């Protein structure tokens, strides 16, 4: 992946989501007949999204020879819950998927705090060198952030329209993540480590 052109990674990461959004907007409010079954625009977009994400993930694995645990977990949950939505022709399963992902991530981060393990630093240490106290604070904040995202997803999909949820999923979540990372800039500065010290700290 490091030797490929810089635009390839964001295309592979965000391409399937943008495709989902485009297909939903194109077929919103319509019925699409696939294999003799009538699907809503939302279910049809989900049907397109699943293989797109699978292909994208396989290409990323082929280019870099590795996948992050988050990518693997996301792919598995998309296949399982997206597949259930298509199989049962019920959008609720796919809408529930982000809640499960965020609760899972929050639980993993919470476990790392209880066990006093720097799992977040092991994953992000090369890109973001922090001391152990910095990782502890960031882990706690990120766990709470993921819990908040899970609650937000539940509130939106249970009370608002499909279109609102799709906008939230496609644009709202990335914006919230960006704002979270930006909002922790002070923590990054206060607990920054020199590159060599960071390598020793996460080893």
From TrEMBL:
Membrane topology: Multi-pass membrane protein
Subcellular location: Cell inner membrane
Function: Plays a role in cell envelope biogenesis, maintenance of cell envelope integrity and membrane homeostasis.
Membrane-spanning intervals of the chain: 7-27, 39-63, 70-88, 100-119, 140-160, 166-187
One matching Pfam family: IspA
Family designation: Belongs to the YciB family.
Gene: yciB
Protein name (Swiss-Prot/TrEMBL): Inner membrane-spanning protein YciB
Alphabetically ordered keywords of this record: Cell inner membrane, Cell membrane, Membrane, Transmembrane, Transmembrane helix
Source taxon at top rank: Bacteria
């Amino acid at each position: 992946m490091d030797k490929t052109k810089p635009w390839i990674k964001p295309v592979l990461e965000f391409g399937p989501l943008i495709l989902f959004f485009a297909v939903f907007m194109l077929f919103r409010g319509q019925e699409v007949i696939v294999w003799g079954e009538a699907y809503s625009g939302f279910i049809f977009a989900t049907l397109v999204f699943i293989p797109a994400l699978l292909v994208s993930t396989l290409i990323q694995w082929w280019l870099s020879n590795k996948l992050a645990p988050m990518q693997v977990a996301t792919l598995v949950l998309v296949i399982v819950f997206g597949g259930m939505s298509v199989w049962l022709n019920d959008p609720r399963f796919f809408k529930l998927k982000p809640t499960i992902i965020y609760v899972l991530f929050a639980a993993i981060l919470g476990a790392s705090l209880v066990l006093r393990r720097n799992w977040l630093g092991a994953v992000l240490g090369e890109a973001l060198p922090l001391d152990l106290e910095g990782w502890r604070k960031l882990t706690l904040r990120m766990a709470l952030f993921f819990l908040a995202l899970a609650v937000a997803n539940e509130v939106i999909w249970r009370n608002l329209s499909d279109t609102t949820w799709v906008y939230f999923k496609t644009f709202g979540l990335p914006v919230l993540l960006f704002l979270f990372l930006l909002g922790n800039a002070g923590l990054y500065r206060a607990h920054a480590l020199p590159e060599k010290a960071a390598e020793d700290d996460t080893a």
